[in-house]
Amino acid sequence: SYYRAIETADYDIVGLSYYPYYHYGFNYLTSAITNVMNNQSCNGKEIMIVETGYYHKWQPDNITFDYSGTYPISNEGQRAFTADMIQTLLRYPRVTGFFWWWPEANEYGLDWNTKRVTDSWYNAGLWDNENGRALPALYELSAFAPAVVGDVTGDGKVDVSDVNAIINMMLGKADVNLICDMNDDGGIDIADINAIINAMLGK
Questions:
Q1: How far apart are CA 88 and CA 34, in angstroms?
Q2: Are 17 and 66 in contact (CB under 8 A)?
Q3: pTM of the model
Q4: How far from 47 is each of 89, 110, 125, 183, CA to CA, in Å?
Q5: Residue 130 CB contacts under 8 Å (≥ 6 apart), including other chains
Q6: Predicted confidence (pLDDT) per residue in 5-30, tens digit
């Protein structure tokens, strides 16, 4: 594979691009993330979505996948897509970065007769070309705050409550959440408890 071919390279981050209109729905995104996590050549590497975007106005005809049935091509559709994508990424502790491609695209105030570009090409920025104001999706970006490693309960710290949460999952007393899969082996077991304890001890 590609990652096996670059095993001797010195790198820290695996960067993925994701545009739903070319790369299909979120299930394809999560599959790609899982494949990277399970690839021994990428063991321990951080994963970042280094470019993504979604239209708030008309989309071109040359797309591969139409997601507008789920996320309408509108300000609200773009916002909902952004919110759902972030929640999807937060399920994976190794996903530590999220970058929107060309978010600052904004042609408000330009002479649209001579200088316009994006209104007929790429309407996926996070500013409204007609009034210059930020679109609702922009405010969703602050929700992307990668979890503290080992913080199973989401309270911002790693302590015995996180260990108890994993034990409850193992005993079937709570729904399994793969954010607790500390060693990326696809399951929740004693190895994850040990990893939590190591995080508590700063190891």
A1: 12
A2: no
A3: 0.74
A4: 10, 38, 23, 15
A5: 108
A6: 777 787 889 999 999 999 999 999 99
